[in-house]
């Protein structure tokens, strides 16, 4: 949520001339007040100018220009200068337009968001630097009235530029932070504790320089270096507050005659360290905000993952219920078929056997013999179908017996496929659902082998081991080896019957190619 001044400065609503006229008046009074506080160390109105240009959309810049030009005019009238002279235009009017052109080129017509990224902070500092560099030649041309050498001319221009630049670094970031409400977010004891430590450290070094001025080239940088600490720990807002506070301390010491270090050296060090601290603080703020956004995204993903986990659990339960219903339906269907068709076919066979006693001719005997043979084939087919629906061995003799000598082996033998089976662990100790799942997975694989017609060997490996918790770990391997004479080997693809059963058991299903074949690997935990 933005602070109220920013809502006013960046309000896109048209009109509101009265409010902006009042704001221009307040800006003019602030300009005059900051101009009175300016000194050789800094020119504070340059900081006010940069901050307002950066925060206000271009459609409102006319009010900013009017406030500063009127303030310059009042100052000139008080000092007895002519408002219609070229000097007033160069010193009182042109600087604002130079700054406005630089800000427009770097920022555009609309204000950027807060200075919470290194790129925005670099643009902000660069706008101030280019504006100060563009204004300093004008100030030298119209404010310096005596002859200078080339070196002195350049030095004078740099002094004007450093004055504007220090005024910007000391005041502009702080005003932007206040407008965005950033200082309210940073209002915590840790900031003021660290700021006090930085000020005390700087005062100690400045007092040392008062006693030993020759140490300036060795220890002066140490007085400003803690600004990097403030920027790193408290973001660009902490760097802005630290730069302003340290600038005020330096100005007070210079004005009181306590600090006798060359002002240009102080300006240069404060400009370099202050600008670096602001950029480092912006990078720290961006990193902190990205961490917060990432943590929020992780929390959202965790909630979604938990929700998906719950849905997956419900789907597994529904799948298990459907599997149980399917098995129950197949069991009931097998019982019904055996009761209805099995008895009828058995009765038909009995009547045909009785008819043999009454038929004496050879033709009738052959006819009855063919009927009895067809009845036997029907009985055998019915028996096979019933065993496919629900093999009796699975309920009477257990899983291992049903796999080794049940209907699956008969299907493979009828298709001419070599069958090999190996078992590890207590396969028959599995629960009913797990036994049924293993059998149906093997049944789906056998049907796939019979369908492909080029499979010459089917190998089954079942390993059952007690798990660390409750239940058993089941590992099932199914190898389908093709004939070496097969010309077109199908690519490995999951078998739908296996996938459905593995999903119901919350297991893992992998397929990998082997020499002349495919390997289907299934793993799941039974009874967990």
From TrEMBL:
<keyword id="KW-0812">Transmembrane</keyword>
<dbReference type="Pfam" id="PF05231">
    <property type="entry name" value="MASE1"/>
</dbReference>
<feature type="transmembrane region" description="Helical">
    <location>
        <begin position="165"/>
        <end position="184"/>
    </location>
</feature>
<feature type="transmembrane region" description="Helical">
    <location>
        <begin position="77"/>
        <end position="106"/>
    </location>
</feature>
<keyword id="KW-0472">Membrane</keyword>
<feature type="transmembrane region" description="Helical">
    <location>
        <begin position="239"/>
        <end position="259"/>
    </location>
</feature>
<dbReference type="InterPro" id="IPR007895">
    <property type="entry name" value="MASE1"/>
</dbReference>
<feature type="transmembrane region" description="Helical">
    <location>
        <begin position="265"/>
        <end position="287"/>
    </location>
</feature>
<feature type="transmembrane region" description="Helical">
    <location>
        <begin position="17"/>
        <end position="34"/>
    </location>
</feature>
<feature type="domain" description="MASE1">
    <location>
        <begin position="22"/>
        <end position="286"/>
    </location>
</feature>
<dbReference type="GO" id="GO:0005886">
    <property type="term" value="C:plasma membrane"/>
</dbReference>
<feature type="transmembrane region" description="Helical">
    <location>
        <begin position="191"/>
        <end position="209"/>
    </location>
</feature>
<protein>
    <recommendedName>
        <fullName>MASE1 domain-containing protein</fullName>
    </recommendedName>
</protein>
<keyword id="KW-1003">Cell membrane</keyword>
<keyword id="KW-1133">Transmembrane helix</keyword>
<feature type="transmembrane region" description="Helical">
    <location>
        <begin position="122"/>
        <end position="145"/>
    </location>
</feature>
<feature type="transmembrane region" description="Helical">
    <location>
        <begin position="41"/>
        <end position="57"/>
    </location>
</feature>
